[in-house]
Amino acid sequence: MKTRIKWIENVAFMAESGSGHAVVMDGAIEGGGKNLGPRPMEMLLMGMGGCSAYDVVHILRKGRENIEDVEVDITAERADSDPKVFTKIHMHFKVIGAGLTDRKVGRAVELSADKYCSASIMLGKTAEVTHSFEILAS
Q1: 0.90 exceeded by the pTM?
Q2: Would you say which domain of life the source belongs to (predicted)?
Q3: How many whole angstroms from its chain centre is CA 118?
């Protein structure tokens, strides 16, 4: 896997993935940025959320569950001093579908957290990562 980061100006950078996609990362206006894109640490959380959501969808579909939507809300806390690593991360999954059970959705979230989501497992080395979920009927 490869990625390339190119400085644009001030504290703005263009990140290009090996698969040919690009995203702008920037700092806050008070930090010299123009707020053109997410902060790099926000990108880490977004990657973690995408990784976990992918797993949950994949696991539930593989189990032939009738899912219509999955959302993940993530809240995180960082250390007060440098390096300002994440210390706590909470992921809340909202799974929408018909006939879903707590057991099946809970198992999908657990498998993602403990076995499949590399991003979540990696961030869990420095942060306390917790999970919750709710099932919303379609």
Answers
A1: yes
A2: Bacteria
A3: 11
